[in-house]
Amino acid sequence: MELGINFTAVLVAVVINFVLGFIWYTPLFGKAWGKEMGYDPNLKPEKSDMMKGMLFMLIGNFLFAYVFAHNIAAWTFVPGMAEMSPVTSALNAAIFTWLGFYVPGELGATVWEKKSWKLFGINTGYHLASLLVVALILTHWR
Description:
Layout: H1 7-28, H2 30-37, H3 47-75, H4 86-112, H5 117-140
Helix pairs in contact: 1-3, 1-5, 3-5, 4-5
């Protein structure tokens, strides 16, 4: 049995997720996120730091999309999953991955690292949006 990962879909998901991250953490929630993180809004990062950060974000987005594609594909072998629509499959994958892997980590960081609940909302909101977008791309473009 072959999982059948569509690498074009993975690469498109990487790019779309990169754009989503930029939009989420810049115009939508950039100021609030920076304030909650304790960053000085007057300090601008060095260009080399920005380039390094974007490179690592792309690498992370690729690993995320590639592994998530495997996870979604593996579930297709479960009886009854093939009858689910791509949207239902995407929602299942995104929401359960978010609840099981992202929310617990963010809860721990919020409590133990004394981060704000506002930051929790911004970060977990991004993770859910990212999972939903990538899952929709991967389930529709098999």
